[in-house]
Amino acid sequence: MGMRIMGLDFGAKTVGVAISDPLLLTAQGIEIIRRKDEDKQRRTLARIEELIKEYEVNEIVLGMPYNMDDPDDTSNPLTYGERGEKTLAFKEKLERRSGLKVTLWDERLTTFEAIETMNELGIKKEKHKNYVDMIAAVLILQGYLYGKNSV
Questions:
Q1: 10 in helix, strand or coil?
Q2: Rounded to whole angstroms, how far apart are CA atoms 133 and 119?
Q3: What are the φ and ψ backbone dihedral angles of 44, each rounded to 5 degrees?
Q4: Which of 76, 86, 55, 64 shows the shortest CA–CA distance to 144?
Q5: What letter does residue 43 receive in the DSSP assignment?
């Protein structure tokens, strides 16, 4: 079995999880890890560690919620707010616990794209919350894989 990459969409009370195939061509949604309290991450991290072992993951891509600044203004580095601060703190915990490299990936518009995808698939709006984080994780990982494979 080859190496695999895990994609994560880190939210206030959920983490969407996607895993690449061994050839690093496609991303599949695996699950949404839910927690009651935003700051209680022990069980979330433990579940991610289980999935790392189960799928033999050796790299993690974490969606980073940058602000919607002007993407054409290259003189201005990407900025982020409180959600980004929490994501960076989660990245540090992930790296410490897993020992794996965690790459940040621009996740702007992935939730919007996930909703568009669900609408195209005919998933009813009231069911969106059951899938949105996992689909966002797939989009984050698929974007990273596409970037990696087009080099």
A1: strand
A2: 15
A3: -60, -50
A4: 64
A5: H
